[in-house]
Amino acid sequence: MSESSTANPEVYRQVVTVIAKVLGIAQDMIKPESNFVNDLGADSLDRVTLVMALEDAFKRQIPEEDLDKLTTVNSTVAYIEKNFLAKSQP
Amino acid sequence: MTEANILITGSTGLVGMHVLYELLGDLNKGSLAGRVFPVLRGSSSFTASQRIDRVLHNKFVPHFLTGCAPLARQSIHPISADLCDLAGLKEAIQTSVPTRKPLTVIHSAGSVNLETTQEARDDVYAHNYEGTLNLLRALDGYAIRFIYIGTVFSSGIQQGRIGDDYLSLPSHTYRNPYEESKAKVEFEVARYCEEKGISFQILRPSIICGRVMDQPLYYTPKFDVFYGWLKFFWQLKKAELHSPLRLCIHETATMNVVPVDFVAKAIVKSVHSHVGQLNIANPEAANTVEITKAALEHIGYENASFVNTIPTDLNRIEQFYYKTVGALFDSYINNDASIYDCSKLLSFISPTMMPSMREHIGGIVDFAKQFNFDERKIDEAAHSGNGW
């Protein structure tokens, strides 16, 4: 699995695991820059499932207005780091 | 034997493809004589001819067409044109289709976009309404018989038994722009054809699923509509999302599903009949709860229960369900007010030909699962070996 140079490796690994499960693809097909629709072939229902599965994995909700920010693996990892991890820290 | 050329649209779609198979079967049996002209666009990957080749030469072509490849090459003449471009369409048809022979036109192309956004409205009006009017105008000068493939849902929301004549229904309230566009097209087809003295038929299938009569069973090139709804549960299963999901489906709700091969056979038989308008629906609509339970069992999704009203305390999965596929399909899965009158259909198609959805729902779901409800995967599988 290739990893984003700036991402938290654990978050990156979890995100890739979720994407692979939802889209039914091998983890090594997923690159940091992969776009869910253009590169990984996700349709609108796949994207909805991805959001549900990410929420389930990280135990946090993603507001509807933020859904369009999650377009690539990198943008998803960055979103989770910024909105989930930063807010969890004291 | 029927001697006429046939022009068909939508021949790479679910219904049109199966109508093409039936026509080829009739040509092979000698009950039809003439040439078949599928009108279709090229795509970014394939020309119009290549797209028809892919319909006719793949692993899922019905077995009754085994050995028909030479006949197909001789009889089927693709026309590359876009229904949204009247001038180009007219030129392409006039260049390819002789005017001296009667022409039966089977128009099944269209968009099945059930969303209610402005984008969806623009899509269905361009493809369903303008596309149909362009086709009629492009055929000016031909001696045509026009067969329009509509949908039973162009009746809009109606109570009770719905007969075959929708053009006389008193009032229409539609679930979405798709239904509205299909109904508007029907009125335009009737008006145009009556004005020009053209014989026409309006044939209306209900919800269509994959093949259940002809081998190989359960094939469908598309996983939309009925499959799109079931795919939601498949996705939850794959993602291992185990929160309970309370599905609002009325105990008395019914779902009228017809297999595509039955629809195609009914269309081709209707073409040889004198029916004007026809419901191609299942005379025995299935109870939605019963069908859904059977489907979910085959999907392997165990977290659903059934309720009569949408709960107010929705969990996160339920919120997503009711905002997405639930919102899109609710008025179809909870359709307990309409019954489609199929007596005319059954007057020329034996009731024994009508497959039971209860019997086949497992096979339909298992087939879709095998390809992850993914149209690209079924397309890859279809062309991974040689057809015929």
This entry's quaternary arrangement is heterodimer
Largest sheet of chain A: none
Largest sheet of chain B, described in full? Answer: 7 strands, parallel
Shape of chain B: globular
- Tell me the number of structural domains of chain A: 1
Total of DSSP H or I helical runs spanning 4+ residues of chain A: 3
**What's the order of the H and E elements of chain A?**
HHH
Structural category of chain B: alpha/beta
The total strand number of chain B stands at 17
Globally, the shape of chain A reads: globular
Can you describe this structure?
The complex is a heterodimer of chains A (90) and B (388). Chain A has 3 helices and no strands. Chain A has 90 residues and is an all-alpha fold. Chain A has one domain: Non-ribosomal Peptide Synthetase Peptidyl Carrier Protein, Chain A (Orthogonal Bundle). In chain A, helix 1 crosses helix 2 and helix 1 crosses helix 3. The longest helix of chain A has 16 residues. Chain B is α/β, with parallel strands linked by helices. Chain B is 43% helix and 16% strand. The longest helix of chain B is centred in the N-terminal third of the chain and has 21 residues. Chain B is globular, with a radius of gyration of 21 Å. The relative contact order of chain B is 0.14. The mean pLDDT of chain B is 93.
